[in-house]
Amino acid sequence: MTPDQIFQLLIAGVTIGSIYALIALGFVVIYNVTGVINLAQGEFAMLGALIAITLTSETPLFHRAFVVNLNLPLIIAIALATLLVMGVGALMYLIVIRWARTDSVIIQIIITIGISIALRGIALIAWGTDPFRLSEFSEGPPIQIGNAVLTRQDLWVIGSAFVLMLLLYLFFQRTFIGVSLRACAVNRVAARLMGINVSHMMLLAFALSAGIGALAGIVIAPKTFMGYDTGTYLGLKGFVAAIAIGGLSDERGAIIGGLLLGVLEILAAGLISSGYKDAIAFLVLIAVLFVQTTGILQRGAKREAAGV
Amino acid sequence: MKKRILALTLLVTAVLVLAACATPTAAPAPTTAAQPAQPTAAPQATAGEPYKVGFVTSITGPASSLGIPERDTALMIQDQVNKAGGIKGPDGKMHQMELIVEDDASDASKATLAAKKLVEQDNVAVLIGSSGSPASLAMVETATKNDTPMISMASASQIVNPIADRKWIFKTPQANQPVTAVQLDWLKANNITKVASIGVNNAFGKDSRDAMNEQFKAAGIEILADEVFQPGDKDFTAQLTKIKGLNPQAVIVHATPGEGAPLTVQYHTLGLTAPILHNHGIGNMDFINLAKDAANGVMFPIGKLLVANSLPDSDPQKAVLLKYIADYGAFTNGKAPSSFGGHAWDAVEIALAGLGSVGPDRAKLRDYFENNVKNFVGISGIFNWSPTDHVGIGKESLVLVRIKDGKWEFVPPDQYAAK
Fold first, then answer.
1. CATH, domain A3-307, list 3.30.70, 1.10.760, 1.10.287, 1.10.3470
2. Does A118 touch chain B (CB under 8 A)?
3. Against a cut of 0.80, is the pTM above it?
4. For a disulfide at A231, which of A42, B333, B359, B408, Cβ 3.0-4.6 Å?
5. Which residues 266-285 of A are in CB contact (within 8 Å) with B?
């Protein structure tokens, strides 16, 4: 392996790692505010990308029953897709999760699995089984760095992930709503006593996570394509990233976990053998779950008790 | 409490509805087994029991771009046969064809369950399936144990080999060996001696890579790298980076469109320029639609269907191919056929020929397949099944196709065939 090749692998690792990090952030935001581990997080990414693709290019829906040909400009399509998926996230909370608030954490997790299967099923019926491709955000040849190649879409992925993380940081640190969300994460009862409407904050957490997931799906879609079942694997990797370092509750841990997972899996594939790519992610997951799963669930249960 | 029950009920209903839809995946075409018999057929008195054909295919999951045209082709044939009155059996009666379609979701264990259901509960006379090699291999045991003839639509040669253990198993696609042989011809004609390979890590990819390792080495072609990726992978940067560093003169890919298309796109963005040879796994429009410009210049050996119009009129398959293209387009509202649908056509038509000759007796059907399928002009080739060959078509049934501006282009054999 030459340094150029290692560099190429690092670029690929950081790119896919940024996506894992964004999805992991979605897990953390919902978990912190509501105590729910939302296993439908990957489906938000899938929905966001498929809606954006449908709005920008000619797309047959429902077995060619009708063809959508809106050809909206990319930026408008992205905004609309993100808003729509935020709506889906909000509805998910309003229609289902809200009523299960008093149930055990396990039941809530199983409900989110059910919702992820439902969303996947809806996407299967609407878009069929073929993957779709979103055109690159900007045309042009890739950038050569020595012998390594950095595509424009890689830059878009890494750049938008960075900007989004920065915006989220400012939102959580500097805005009243952001601080209220954090207050709910620290202590729901105290937050309520302080006059924060906890239910509204939970709704916001779901919408926010859905939006982050949707954007992650949209920026990676030109590179990996998107089909009704692609979200599952993104969600799984995001979950591993969220849990590995931050134990599901630390935003910085989620970001570092995502980037590390991306780089590790690409290096494993490039340096050892491509067969080990997913093995890395699952080994990390198994190791982490082995050491601290009860901790995570108990913490969820404690918050639960405190919140009710 | 009430509200909670309501919400849960809603959720459960939604999941159930979706689960129900997921199995037959809302077939686009109207045809079902309940097609009324056409009055043009023989009078009611001579109508016999319907002949049951079990059909396992990958309508969802990574192999769905294979499974959907296969299902549509089988439904189309059922429609044609039953509208014409059915199949005339050896008893002289007309029998409706009852096609029972099961989706294995590209999953080997689901394929086994589907095969078991068809063989044990539905009591089908013959089992057709599945789309992919892993799923087909998983069905082999069920078919063999229940003495039921099975026709696979997948390529791995282990499906019908070793032939002593595969008494009941036949298949319609070319094996990977002749496909590799055509690739090898092209490499030799272009004086290429160093190649790299990347393939999917499943039975299909392994069989294709085994064929490559065996034949290329025998021909003195060096394989610089033999990389794999997992089914469902979407990022191939690591493997392609490795390949790029080795400077091969050509790259051989063993994949289906789901992974083959993003791989080909990334191949170009990473700046690889060596000619890229796929195998017959990518032979449908999905590949071109997904890979777009990156598909330009991709070459692969495949059956004659994709370039039927460019064939000389003397080709014995040409008429069958053109009729299939027209019928399939009419049945699916204008979809272009793929070689995968062709594999289904061959399997279903051979099964029907057998049912017409010997009826729904499983053992007799098997014997018919082994001894009586001779010079059967199909979509993938001209089939000659025998006790030592359950594939019955080889290198002669393949042509080399190049993709140019989103279209299949016939590469005349004199440009590459053994000199």
1. 1.10.3470
2. yes
3. no
4. A42
5. 266-267, 269-270, 273-275, 277-278
